[in-house]
Amino acid sequence: MSVIDLFSEKSDLYAAARPKYPEKLYHFLASQVDSPKRVWDCGAGSGQASIGLSKYFAEVYATDISDRQIQYAIQADNIHYSIQPAEKTNFPDAYFDAVIVAQALHWFDHQQFWSEVKRVLRQNGLFAAWCYNFFFISPKIDAVIEESIHQIIEPYWSSRIVSLCKGYSDVDFPFELIQVPSIDLTVYWNLSELLTYIHTWSATRQCMQQQGKEFYEAASSQLSTVWGNLEEKKEVKMNFHLIAGLNK
């Protein structure tokens, strides 16, 4: 199945359920460029990173291969969305002060993508990529999610998720690495919001298509038992990984 098939379905849920990134991240990115004019948000999805970048860069160019994702993307006057693959775009040479990839680097053809980044990124421009993988709430809730969801959907993950799980530590990074700050990614969700997030996972949807929704409904019931007040928002701590470097 293609990447566009994995993320075009349920784009409305994706836009609503994915966590927003902390201001500390955007402040760091903008501080690493001499003049934060233009940034390319590659694999932008529904714009979770684009909207944050729009407060720190004069112009944000956000691309994705899914027209459905772009359809539900967060809007701002200085965000310019277009449907383009990561590996070949219509941007001019040395056009961007920064290129970022949020939660999408593992889907790209790296050899072609690196060539495209080096073409459109100015000399000494910033490249940054980040991802989040596992999350933690409480021992009881985590145990139910592991047994009732993770173990069931595991066969349906793309092999490319391995790189995500490693925090991109296995990526052959062609830029001069710079030191990055520690970033905490924490959200506060009630049970419905958590389940909506889990529903956006590509493996969850693939499993539903193959096995039906019974496992998801059973997991929802078990989680409601250990959650307590279903409207109570609980702290959800994400494992967050950031890599960044300069185009020398």
Describe what this molecule looks like in 3D:
By secondary structure, the protein is of the alpha/beta class. The chain has a single domain, classed as Rossmann fold, CATH 3.40.50. Strands 1, 2, 3, 4, 5, 6, 7 and 8 form an eight-stranded mixed beta sheet that branches. Helix 4 links the parallel strand 1 and strand 2. The longest helix has 15 residues. It is elongated, with a radius of gyration of 18 Å.
CATH class division: Alpha Beta
Assign the CATH superfamily: Vaccinia Virus protein VP39
- Portion of residues in helices? 25-40%
Count of separate DSSP helical elements = 11
Domains, number: 1
SSE succession? HHHEHEHEEHEHHEEHHHE
Proportion of residues in β-strands: 15-25%
Structural class: alpha/beta
pLDDT average, as an integer?
92
Uncertain regions spanning at least 5 consecutive residues: 1-8
What is the C-alpha radius of gyration, as a whole number of Å? 18 Å
Counting DSSP E segments of at least 2 residues, the number of strands comes to 8
Name of the CATH architecture: 3-Layer(aba) Sandwich
Main β-sheet, in a few words? 8 strands, mixed
Distance between the termini: 36 Å
What overall geometry do the principal axes of the alpha carbons give? elongated
CATH topology: Rossmann fold
Write the layout of secondary structure elements.
Blueprint (H helix, E strand, L loop, with lengths): L2 H6 L2 H7 L5 H9 L6 E5 L5 H6 L5 E6 L2 H5 L7 E5 L12 E7 L7 H11 E16 L2 H15 L7 H5 L10 E2 L7 E5 L1 H9 L2 H10 L2 H14 L6 E13 L2
Parallel strand pairs: 1-2, 1-4, 2-3, 4-5
Antiparallel strand pairs: 5-8, 6-8, 7-8
